[in-house]
Design a protein that fits this description.
The chain is an alpha/beta fold and 201 residues long. Helix content is 34%, strand content 22%. It binds inosine 5'-triphosphate (ITT). Inosine 5'-triphosphate (ITT) binds next to β3 and α4.
């Protein structure tokens, strides 16, 4: 069975591939296999709506079952911002560094103890027929640091700390992050669904 990962974010691709590695799947990506297919601009309604939209667009345009991820960071002191705008928080096309720098600046007067945040992830799947869309969700709670730490992961990982461990996500191994993360949680459910499809095939 083939699936197409409808994302251009390499950090997401690495994490998704690692968690699905033990399934009997051929995993294609937009970057390697459909470089000219551009995902449509994202909406502002919800992670779920965006994830299903990206998966549906990719499946219909390629004829292959597609899996997409829409995710982001919700900061309590900012009433949920940057949320679904996480990728374009500093500007459209912002680098991870630019987004992290902007968030630390916006939060500079927020004291420790009031810097709670959560990552959310929705993994959407779609078939070329347009039928049988699914959405799988995950959440990870933590706090925003006052400076970046660590070299691993991607995105906001260097400024997102898991209080119980004292580490940012960027200070963890890929496996440690996948075991607790919003994406890891959503991917476990995706994996059960893919196993059902593989058994039916
Ligand atoms: P695609 O739409 O091509 O999948 P994208 O990077 O634009 O890629 P999103 O619109 O879902 O993806 O934006 C999610 C942003 O949220 C992403 O750019 C990161 O900055 C951040 N993010 C999501 N998951 C994260 C994680 O596990 N660790 C750190 N940052 C994360």
């Amino acid at each position: 069975m083939k699936i197409l990962l409808a994302t251009t974010n390499k950090g997401k691709i690495n994490e998704i591939k690692e968690l699905l590695a033990d399934l009997d799947l051929e995993i294609l990506t937009l970057i390697d296999d459909f470089p000219s297919l551009k995902l449509p601009e994202e909406g502002v309604l919800s992670f779920r709506f965006n994830a299903l939209g990206k998966a549906g667009f990719a499946a219909i345009n390629t004829g292959i079952m597609a899996v997409a991820d829409d995710s982001g960071l919700e900061v309590e002191a900012l009433v949920g911002q940057p949320g679904i705008r996480s990728a374009r928080y500093a500007r459209v096309g912002a680098t991870d560094d630019e987004n992290n720098t902007k968030l630390l600046k916006v939060l500079k007067d927020i004291p420790e103890g009031q810097r709670r945040a959560r990552f959310r992830c929705v993994i959407g799947t779609a078939q070329p027929s347009g039928r049988d869309e699914r959405g799988f969700e995950g959440t990870l709670y933590g706090t925003i640091t006052t400076a970046p730490r660590g070299e691993g992961g991607f995105g906001y990982d260097p400024i997102f700390e898991i209080p119980e461990t004292g580490k940012t996500l960027a200070e963890m191994t890929a496996q440690e992050k996948n075991e607790i993360s919003h994406r890891g949680e959503a991917l476990l459910e995706l994996k059960e669904y893919l196993k059902e499809l593989l058994n039916e095939a």
